[in-house]
Design brief:
By secondary structure, the protein is mainly α. It has one domain: de novo design (two linked rop proteins). 75% of the residues lie in helices and 0% in strands. It has four helices and no strands. α1 runs antiparallel to α2 and α2 runs antiparallel to α3. The two termini are 29 Å apart. The mean pLDDT is 95.
Length: 120
């Protein structure tokens, strides 16, 4: 098994993807190629970038992929706020809280990797 499977941030981001797929299933049909697709793509890129970064050989590359995951977290946050304002969501605050926690976990992992690489 790849070591990213042991990362709590990766596990939680996988759970978030599942939740995003469930909530976007309830969006209006006309959003299927709009907000639904954008939110699903942004959500999937979070654990994908964590996994890809973990598979890289250097700390610098891993940190870069974690930075990309942070960007996807911010993107998904924006999309959740839009969906909430459009009244497509009933649990926006729960999802936004989870995103904030993922962001903090990702930043923490970046810091840990920097320290281990002697760059922190």
């Amino acid at each position: 098994m790849k070591w990213h499977h042991n990362l709590d941030v990766w596990k939680r981001s996988i759970e978030l993807v599942v939740e995003i797929y469930k909530v976007t299933d309830t969006f209006p049909r006309h959003e299927v190629y709009g907000l639904t697709q954008q939110m699903r793509r942004a959500a999937v890129t979070i654990p994908s970038n964590i996994a890809e970064g973990a598979a890289r050989k250097s700390s610098k590359e891993f940190i870069q992929f974690l930075s990309t995951a942070q960007g996807s977290i911010a993107e998904l946050e924006t999309q959740l706020i839009i969906a909430d304002k459009l009244k497509y969501l009933k649990q926006a605050s729960v999802l936004l809280k989870e995103l904030n926690e993922l962001s903090l976990m990702t930043a923490g992992l970046q810091g840990t990797i920097k320290k281990k690489a002697g760059k922190g």
